[in-house]
């Protein structure tokens, strides 16, 4: 190349990259779920795991977290068991219904969290580049270049 060499003093570096729009929480979420949304969505957008297309799937995760927190608080306040009262079988202890809601919420959280890489294992899986890297490795082994 001919010409004058570039003067790096004239170049102004970009600050922090390009900001992507953070989707707002759906209206149907309760306050706890909205807090979860507001806490996690900016980081998901930064990691390029949150697009407008995934809004309702992530809302499902936020609602599950809200159900988990609410049911956990109920169990903490009311206990894991309740008395049935005097009946023909006498006074019996039963499992509190909030425990079932808590367990269901945890299962939903685990399932939906995997989609967005919210656990260490899923983070590593999503960060590895998915199946494309797997096939590249297999092809390298078949070609003998590995």
Task: Describe the overall structure.
- By secondary structure, the protein is mainly alpha-helical.
- The protein has a domain at 26-82 and 95-122.
- Helices cover 55% and strands 4% of the residues.
- It has five helices and two strands; from the N terminus they run H-H-E-E-H-H-H.
- It has helices spanning 31-46, 55-78, 97-116, 120-127, 131-143; strands at residues 81-83, 93-95.
- A two-stranded antiparallel ribbon has the order 1-2.
- Helix 1 crosses helix 2 and helix 3 (97-116) runs parallel beside helix 4 (120-127).
- The radius of gyration is 25 Å and the shape is elongated.
- The protein starts with 30 loop residues before the first helix and ends with a helix.
- The model has no long low-confidence stretch (mean pLDDT 85).
Topology record:
Elements: H1 31-46, H2 55-78, E1 81-83, E2 93-95, H3 97-116, H4 120-127, H5 131-143
Antiparallel strand pairs: 1-2
Helix pairs in contact: 1-2, 2-3, 3-4
